[in-house]
Amino acid sequence: MAEILVIDDDPDIRDLLYIALSDAGHAVRLAPDGDAGLRAASGLAPDLVVLDWMLPEHSGLDVCRAMRADQALSQVRVLMLSARGTESDIVYGQQAGADGYIVKPFSPKALVWRVESMLSQEHKVIDATPDF
């Protein structure tokens, strides 16, 4: 069982993800915006965050960057979930630090499969600092 945090401003999406991920055996917490999500992540230290891009106040990209800059959260896997689905959008999401990207509308079964796949992979941080 993994601890999963869902950060999405759409209550219907939050409910759908809660049901799908809970049914898959995970402990799921919900947050309606980026600020609440960052607070929850800091207190929970989840195994994975499902993160909407288009959030009020702070975008999912901002939240993802903040997580990557926070030593305690930098190793948490992030699955970006967004209606923004162009190739450029997906690249921006990954440049912000997302480990995966799913475009809305989505299949709950496919999302659960992607979550399981991400959780089974060893999370690696690439250190781009050269050794001199």
Question: How would you summarize this macromolecular structure in one to three sentences?
Answer:
The chain has about 130 residues and is α/β, with parallel strands linked by helices. The protein is built from 5 helices and 5 strands, in the order βαβαβαβαβα.
Uncertain segments of ≥5 residues (pLDDT<50)? 125-130
Number of helices: 5
The third-level CATH topology is: Rossmann fold
Helix content: 40-55%
- The total beta strand count reads 5
Average of per-residue pLDDT values = 92
- How many separate domains make up the residues? 1
Give the spatial strand order of the biggest sheet: 2-1-3-4-5
- Give the SSE string: EHEHEHEHEH
Known CATH architecture: 3-Layer(aba) Sandwich
Quaternary structure of the protein: single chain
Span between termini: 42 Å
**Mind summarizing the main beta sheet?**
5 strands, parallel
Q: Which structural category fits the helices and strands?
A: alpha/beta
Evaluate the radius of gyration. Answer: 14 Å
Binned strand content: 15-25%
Shape: globular
CATH superfamily: Response regulator
* CATH class label: Alpha Beta
Protein name: Response regulator transcription factor
Keywords: DNA-binding, Phosphoprotein, Transcription, Transcription regulation, Two-component regulatory system
GO cellular component, one term: protein-DNA complex
GO molecular function: phosphorelay response regulator activity; transcription cis-regulatory region binding
